[in-house]
């Protein structure tokens, strides 16, 4: 990994140089401030996928720390992470830079939905050397809270119910931070006022000023908040920094309440290894770069929030994709193989379409196209019998693809973080309620992710 002052920034500042940056970092150190280097961001991809790249990452970050005076590193990898080898890299970096090394993370909300997610695994793997996880509670859409309910971004409940997942999942309270945009213009969605951030911290630390979600215990040791970004905050009179920083000093002290045993079932899905790309120029701010896309719909129907259910997506190696042939019977589903050449029978979000390649079987497949505000969802409502168990199956190709349907117990879904460029089968079993006569089946990707493909969707 390499780093230098961006040429565009240098020009905009009248010739700002590496030497100027080093001088500024030294000044910040002189007044008791820390500066860390952030790697990744929305468009940056760092590949740490084996022991060699782990060692290269650790050594290169350490050299940059020595050259510029950085106090640590912020992991903001939004395009996939390998928990095993990033753990190796950060432990090697810690052995080089201790005892003062700062390690922070800036995952998206989807990355911290359960302890089985790669980002969450990484945080737990390095818990003894981890400083804080500043989850990005913005540009997210709706997500499950620790109580299994779905919460919309841009609310206190969204902050508290999702932070609860990390607090119950094994992180110390002082390792859990709330990351929010400084202004409405700083992100596509998820902004709350600094007062709401303070209320969320009160709710988590002492059980006061809560919204509708009330945690089953409190965590007095919570101390974290992050904003994107200080530059945006400057346009608003530093409202976030002034309001939240002072409030953090008023939070209760002492030993945190005992956390209940983790109630989240680990997700069985490993994170796909990111592909190499040129190293980005990390931000001086430890805050992550948000997606510039508009706010996702806060409540897609059915909910796109990943379920904490432990049901696993079958491995693509367990069910190899057959050679192209006629699409299998879709059972109760209509046009499940999209062999009509269009999405007839389905209700799909634009710009979803039917394509001739890649397909799982037959001549056509669905190409679902997520945007910054949609998940590329297609739904179909079919007639079913009450008190009956059905099997819903689909072959999918892509990243963060979800298959779901509604049954007696509500939404049932499964998903895959990535299929490695091949088709993989997703399957769920859904039992209808005593008076249920219709079922809505849905397939979708995730906000701002690449196009996914789906084929041979069946309901039997």
From TrEMBL:
GO molecular function: chitin binding; endochitinase activity
Region (Disordered): 251-336
Keywords: Glycosidase, Hydrolase
Biological source species: Acidothermus cellulolyticus (strain ATCC 43068 / DSM 8971 / 11B)
Biased composition (Pro residues): 255-325
Source species, domain of life: Bacteria
Family indicated by similarity: Belongs to the glycosyl hydrolase 18 family.
Tagged with keyword Cell wall biogenesis/degradation: no
Coiled coil region boundaries: none
Enzyme class: hydrolase
Official protein name in the record: chitinase
Annotated GH18 domain residues: 1-251
Enzyme Commission no: 3.2.1.14
Any single biological process term in GO: carbohydrate metabolic process
Pfam families named in the record: CBM_4_9, Glyco_hydro_18
């Amino acid at each position: 990994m390499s780093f230098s002052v961006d040429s565009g920034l240098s020009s905009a500042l009248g010739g700002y140089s590496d030497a100027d940056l080093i001088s500024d970092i030294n000044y910040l150190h002189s007044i008791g401030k820390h500066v860390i280097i952030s790697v990744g961001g929305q468009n940056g991809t760092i590949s740490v996928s084996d022991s060699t790249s782990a060692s290269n990452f650790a050594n290169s970050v350490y050299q940059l720390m020595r050259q510029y005076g950085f106090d640590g590193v912020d992991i903001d990898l939004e395009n996939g992470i390998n928990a095993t080898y990033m753990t190796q890299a950060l432990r090697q970096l810690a052995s080089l830079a201790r005892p003062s090394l700062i390690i922070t993370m800036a995952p998206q909300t989807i990355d911290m939905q359960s302890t089985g997610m790669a980002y969450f695994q990484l945080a737990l793997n390095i818990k003894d050397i981890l400083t804080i996880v500043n989850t990005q509670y913005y540009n997210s859409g709706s997500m499950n809270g620790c109580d299994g309910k779905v919460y919309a971004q841009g609310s206190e409940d969204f902050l508290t119910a999702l932070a609860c997942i990390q607090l119950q999942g094994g992180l110390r309270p002082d390792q859990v931070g709330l990351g929010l945009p400084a202004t409405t213009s700083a992100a596509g969605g998820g902004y709350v006022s600094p007062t709401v951030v303070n209320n969320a911290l009160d709710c988590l630390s002492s059980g006061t000023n809560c919204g509708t979600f009330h945690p089953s215990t409190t965590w007095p040791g919570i101390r974290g908040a992050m904003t994107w970004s200080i530059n945006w905050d400057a346009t608003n009179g530093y409202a976030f920094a002034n309001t939240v920083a002072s409030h953090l000093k008023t939070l209760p002290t002492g030993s945190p309440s005992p956390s209940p045993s983790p109630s989240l079932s680990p997700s069985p899905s490993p994170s796909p290894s990111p592909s190499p790309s040129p190293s980005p120029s990390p931000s001086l701010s430890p805050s992550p770069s948000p997606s510039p896309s508009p706010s996702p719909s806060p409540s897609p129907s059915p909910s796109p929030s990943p379920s904490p259910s432990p049901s696993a997506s079958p491995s693509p190696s367990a069910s190899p994709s057959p050679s192209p042939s006629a699409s299998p019977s879709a059972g109760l589903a209509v046009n499940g193989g999209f062999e009509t050449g269009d999405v007839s029978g389905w209700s799909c979000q634009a710009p979803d379409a039917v394509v001739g390649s890649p397909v799982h079987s037959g001549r056509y497949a669905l190409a679902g196209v997520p945007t910054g505000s949609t998940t590329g969802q297609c739904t179909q409502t079919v007639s079913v019998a009450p008190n009956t168990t059905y099997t819903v199956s689909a072959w999918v190709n892509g990243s963060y693809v979800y298959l779901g349907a509604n049954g007696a117990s509500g939404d049932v879904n499964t998903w895959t973080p990535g299929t490695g460029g091949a088709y993989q089968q997703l399957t769920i079993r859904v039992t209808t309620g005593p008076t249920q006569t219709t079922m809505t089946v849905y397939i979708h990707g995730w906000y701002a992710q690449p196009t996914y493909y789906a084929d041979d969707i069946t309901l039997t």
